[in-house]
Specification:
The complex is a heterodimer. In chain A, the strands form two sheets. Chain A has a six-stranded mixed β-sheet, sandwiched between helices. The two termini of chain A are 21 Å apart. Chain A is 35% helix and 25% strand. Chain A has a domain of 64 residues. Chain A is built from seven helices and ten strands. Chain A is of the alpha/beta class. In chain A, helix 4 packs across helix 5. Chain B has two domains: 187 residues, no CATH class; 92 residues, Alpha-Beta Plaits (2-Layer Sandwich), CATH 3.30.70. In chain B, helix 7 runs parallel beside helix 10. The chains are: A alpha/beta, B alpha+beta. Chains A and B meet through helix 2 and helix 3 of A and helix 1 and helix 8 of B.
Chain lengths: 216, 297
């Protein structure tokens, strides 16, 4: 599903975020990427939807070489991925429902089908009763769950989350992870970056530990 | 309904909602006021040109004989003129008749009495066609006994030249204000892009194409231009209606039913469409310049 071979990423200014990273994630797997802040977790995840491009090495996602992907092809790659960002990136000028609807606006679903999908996604993260609310009225955990609903509304086969439990209390964090596990159980490949080792240990799943830009 | 059509309808709806907000309407009004100047000028000029065209339909030449010329010489000249194929109509104005006409004008009888004699020469007024007027006037000036030839085409040509200058001025004005329209749209779209920065960034992150992101801005530029053009046409129509009330009073005192005519429907439509096109252009420039800056990273 995702394979990195000898990937290096150097930012302008000389900072080396990733060095010689190689790994492969199979279809239907759930893996954690751990490491301290600054270890390169976010950079690694950003290479998958081509938010960043590798300096060297190759990144293959669903058989597509991301390093060689044309600019115009990037939107279509991203539509097939579910992305959950560290800062959620919700839009506070519209309702919970409209936030979850956003990806469907440009993938061109018929309105009835789109509405059905949005409700299904909100149902899965337990926000069906909050459709009319503004995201600002939601708790931290609920906002993160809304971000997950938006990521899965297009039914991606790969779900990528960057620190989805950061700044959440233990109970909310556990609930978020349960949602990811549930998606994984129905066949979605899931990749989660986190610095919370304790949380990871509880699930007994595959762990890629990054240290100073290398897989340790 | 196809997905493509649905996306266009969505973009159009978004643009329409943004246009109807106060800032969008204010921008459209600025465009409307700016465009009403050249559009109004053009309307007035077209009305005046219609009169000018009527005036110069039949170029006239006035031919004045030398004051000491005998009536017989005048009659001989008249016979000769009648044989010239370029002369369409010919009218002889004896000096006595000319004097009588002049005496009918307020203030002149006293002046003529003071002179003690008739200062006016015999004259011919002849009409010809526009193509022949210059050559004919030159030929007539060479005839014996002719003191002065006045071709009305000269002032008609001056009028045409003046109208040409006015038209050029209007085109320059239209060019300047058209550029202003593009700049106004450029700026409106830039502000709109800044306000929606978050939405644009998130949309790019989750798979919106550039075309999808640009579309509402193109529609906004187009709609704002069209609205501005329509306002310009409305402003010109309202101004003409006001102007014609006063012009009507003035024209009647001259026994004329002259009114400034409104732009022909085709021209009015052209103003609106042209404004829309310029709005689209402003949006295009702004979007090309500003959307690239918003790249998620």
């Amino acid at each position: 599903m995702v394979s990195f071979s000898s990937v290096a990423k150097r930012y302008p200014g000389g900072q080396e975020a990733l060095r010689d990273v190689s790994f492969a994630i199979g279809e239907g797997e759930l893996a954690f990427i751990t490491g301290r802040s600054g270890a390169g977790k976010s950079t690694l995840l950003k290479l998958i939807p081509a938010i960043e491009r590798p300096t060297s090495g190759s990144v293959i996602v669903k058989g597509q070489n991301i390093s060689a992907l044309k600019r115009a092809a990037i939107p279509y790659l991203r539509r097939n991925l579910g992305l959950v960002f560290q800062d959620q990136k919700l839009l506070y000028d519209r309702s919970v429902y409209d936030n979850a609807m956003l990806p469907l606006a440009f993938s061109g679903h018929a309105p009835k089908e789109a509405a059905r999908r949005v409700r299904a996604a909100l149902d899965k993260v337990g926000l069906l009763g909050r459709e009319r609310s503004n995201p600002i009225q939601l708790s931290g955990g609920e906002q993160q769950r809304l971000a997950i609903a938006r990521a899965v509304v297009n039914r991606p086969s790969l779900l990528i989350a960057d620190e989805p439990t950061a700044n959440l209390d233990v109970e909310s964090a556990a609930r978020i992870l349960e949602i990811f596990v549930a998606f994984n159980q129905v066949g979605v490949t899931v990749l989660i970056a986190t610095h919370d080792q304790g949380l990871v240990a509880r699930y007994g799943k595959r762990v890629l530990h990054l240290e100073k830009g290398r897989v340790a | 309904m196809s997905a493509w059509l649905r996306q266009h309808r969505r973009a159009f709806g978004q643009a329409l909602r943004r246009l109807t907000k106060a800032t969008g309407l204010a921008s459209a009004l600025v465009i409307g006021i700016a465009l009403s100047l050249p559009a109004g000028g053009y309307t007035l000029l077209e009305s005046l040109r219609a009169i000018a065209a009527r005036l110069t339909l039949e170029p006239q030449i006035s031919l004045f004989l030398q004051p000491e010329a005998k009536r017989a010489e005048a009659e001989a000249l008249g016979k000769r003129l009648r044989t010239d194929p370029r002369v369409a109509t010919l009218r002889f104005v004896p000096r006595e008749d000319a004097l009588r006409e002049l005496q009918a004008v307020e203030g002149f009888p006293e002046l003529i009495a003071a002179l003690g004699r008739n200062p006016l020469p015999d004259a011919f007024v002849l009409s010809t066609n526009a193509a022949a007027v210059d050559a004919l006037a030159a030929d007539l000036a060479k005839l014996p006994g002719v003191a002065h030839v006045q071709a009305d085409a000269v002032w008609a040509r001056r009028l045409a030249a003046l109208a040409g200058i006015a038209r050029l001025g209007l085109w320059l004005l239209a060019g300047l204000l058209g550029t202003g329209l593009v700049a106004v749209t450029f700026n409106t779209i830039r502000l709109q892009i800044l306000t929606q920065r978050d939405e644009i960034e998130v949309s790019k992150l989750i798979g919106a194409t550039d075309a999808f992101i640009r579309r509402p801005f193109y529609y906004l530029g187009l709609l704002q231009g069209l609205a501005g053009g329509a306002m310009a046409v409305g402003i010109v129509a309202a101004a003409l209606a006001l102007l014609n009330r006063e012009v009507g009073v003035l024209a009647e005192s001259y026994g004329s039913s002259f009114r400034f005519a409104f732009l022909p429907a085709g021209d009015a439509l052209a103003v609106v469409l042209f404004a829309g096109l310029l709005g689209w252009l402003g949006a295009h420039l702004s979007v090309s310049r500003h959307l690239r800056d918003i790249e998620p990273g």
